[in-house]
Amino acid sequence: MAVEVRHLRSLVAVVDEGTFTDAAIALNTSQASVSRAVADLERSVGARLVQRTNRGALPTVAGTRVATHARRVLEEMDAIAQVATVTGTEVRVGYAWAALGRHTTPLQRRWAAEHPGSTVVFVQAGTATAGLLEGAADIAVTRRPLDERRFASALVGVEARYAALATDHPLARRRSVRMRDFAGTTVGIDARTGTTTEDLWPPDAAPAQTRDTHNVDEWLTLIAAGQAIGITSEATTWQHPRPGIVYRPVRDAPPVPVWLAWWRDGDPPHAAALMHLAAELYADASSS
Q1: What is the pLDDT of residues 167-205, one digit of tens each?
Q2: How many CB atoms lie within 10 A of CB 223?
Q3: Which site among 87, 158, 162, 188 is 20 to 30 Å from 6 CA-CA?
Q4: What pLDDT is recorded for position 7?
Q5: Could you tell me where the DSSP H helices lie in the chain?
Q6: Which CATH number does the domain 161-254 belong to among 3.40.190.10, 3.10.20.440, 3.40.50.300, 3.40.720.10?
Q7: Percentage of the chain surpassing pLDDT 90?
């Protein structure tokens, strides 16, 4: 006979309550049902687990050990049930650097108004898939293409590129910059999750060198210290304002595409609605 969850719950209840009668009350069932469940479990494990006495029920040595393992199993079962409950009401959206920039909070508020009982939660995950591969997110915001064999994606908008500069950098005095202004400089990049590569510049206007960083905070710290300058999407300017750093639009830089992505073999229930709302917010911004 296979061990079932009801067997484990009955044993733990008997051990905790001290009698079969009180265990039945705690489980909102009959005493006979609890007795049968414990007896079935004893047959499955091949050992006496509970010693029945005139004063109640006492676990045997084997019963104490099985009850300890049973508690762990029941805790994991409860955790699984909690995940299922949260998954039905919560849409987890991963991002590596800047979520949806200025559209992040409006999207969350509109979603809550249009989908009562459901919440969009943004989760920062500094990985190439923004939390998809790691299971941290149902949907991911990405500004670089993912492996099309594993992930489906939809373009929801584009963003302008901005230079990130220390406040005392000579370019910080300008209202905007051009791509050629990066020539001969040191540019901070995040090769794993960032939107900037050396291919962004023509050979005759390329930076002198690049400095690799591993997350947005490290990138900002490098720039604030004057050790590099950066180029990033508009979303970063909204998500990461920082003392000692200014952002200036790069007038002739190609825009940054923004996709929502998810596992190709498992469309999240709210993917279509989320894509529609995000695309609408980007479209409204571009027309204003």
Answers
A1: 999 999 999 999 999 999 999 999 888 889 888 998 888
A2: 26
A3: 87
A4: 92
A5: 5-17, 20-27, 31-45, 61-89, 104-114, 216-224, 234-239, 271-287
A6: 3.40.190.10
A7: 67
pTM for the full predicted model = 0.70
Q: Which residues on adjacent β-strands are paired with residue 85?
A: none
Can you read off the two tokens belonging to residue 114?
A: 């249009």
In angstroms, the CA 25 to CA 14 distance is 10
* The one-letter amino acid at 156: V
Q: Residue 1 has what pLDDT?
A: 60
Reduced to 3 states (helix: H, G, I; strand: E, B; else coil), residue 192 is: coil
Q: Amino acid letter at 234?
A: E
- Beta-strand relationship, 139-142 and 90-95: parallel
> CB of 185 within 8 A of CB of 196?
no
Query: Which residue type occupies 165?
Result: L
Write out pLDDT tens, residues 17-63: 999 999 999 998 999 999 999 999 999 989 999 998 877 888 999 98
As a residue count, the chain comes to 288
Which one of 2.60.220.30, 1.10.10.10, 1.10.3720.10, 3.40.30.10 gives the CATH number of domain 5-87? 1.10.10.10
What is the Cα–Cα distance from 89 to 135, expressed in whole angstroms?
17
Element (H, E) at 162: strand 161-166
Any long-range contacts for 64-69 (C-beta under 8 Å, 24+ apart)?
Answer: 64/15, 66/11, 66/41, 67/11, 67/12, 67/15
